[in-house]
Amino acid sequence: MPMSMCSRCKRLYPLGSRCEPCTSAGAKRREQKRKHTRPSAWARGYNSSYAKARSAILAERPLCSLCNLRPATTADHIVPLSRGGTNDQENLRPACGPCNFSRGNRTA
To answer: What is the pTM of this model?
Structure first.
């Protein structure tokens, strides 16, 4: 039977590109990575009600409310969704990307 060398650990084995231990270890790593992926924006609460409120906020106030220097491109949640906030216009304020992303998961 022809023998091949594993592309990962360089052991000899019959046929395929990887030996059985390396194949199962790779599958295990991929499965663990899948478990730790971030939920989609829709699953995190950024749905059509957020999109409508965001559009209204940005049309009303075009400058970032945090730095007052750059144009607002996002709507920042004053109380984050993960801490019980909502997508109501009262809980949103205009923010530029750098200001919004630097805030993280903090309440204002």
So the answer is: 0.63
